[in-house]
Predict the structure.
Amino acid sequence: MYNKRFFTVKLWEIQKLGGVCVKYPTSCILKWFLTKYLRLPERALVLDLTYGEGRFWYATNYLVYGVDIKRLAWVKEPFVFIKDSLYNIWGYPDVVSQPFDLVVVDPPFTKHKHRRTHYRVSGSLKEAYNMVLFAIDLAQTLGKPLLVHFREPINWADYGFFLESYSRYASGLLCGWFGLFLW
Ligand SMILES: C[S@@+](CC[C@H](N)C(=O)[O-])C[C@H]1O[C@@H](n2cnc3c(N)ncnc32)[C@H](O)[C@@H]1O
């Protein structure tokens, strides 16, 4: 049971698939993962609380409501963009009432070759946890599945699926994980 819910992927293996997977392998692995385990349709409605550049969605045709405090140079344009903090999302009743298929959070981290210091060097580890906890609470309240991308431990075992991904970063290997939380 456990093994069927735990996956490890090496992003450089995904890149060998070619096409859009070369530049944004994570978007390919997410599309596969979400189609297979959440049965997300081609035009799924997604609420991404930390949209960033929209790299996660490069290989998809999802309709993504993207929330971010900053408007970055998007690699994939969001369906709707909300320039605000995720903590203010309840102030957008027209957004939270949408029939989302999935809620997503990917807290900011600082690039550093030692993985354990990714959130700490920016002094924001506590903030990163806060964002994840807020997203868990929001998704549970809305009754929607939640996809978390994080590089720190969290008690995921009671929920859904766990995907560990390795990328080559600077001089070493960087491991991050995606947890798909189903309530
Ligand atoms: C790790 S990046 C997300 C990358 C994104 N998943 C992608 O595929 O491009 C984290 C993002 O969270 C945003 N962010 C930081 N604090 C935030 C907040 N309070 N509310 C919403 N977004 C926030 C940052 O501006 C940054 O773009």
Summary: The mean pLDDT is 86. The pocket of S-adenosylmethionine is lined by residues 49-50, 52-56, 67-70, 72, 85-87, 106, 108 (CB under 6 Å).
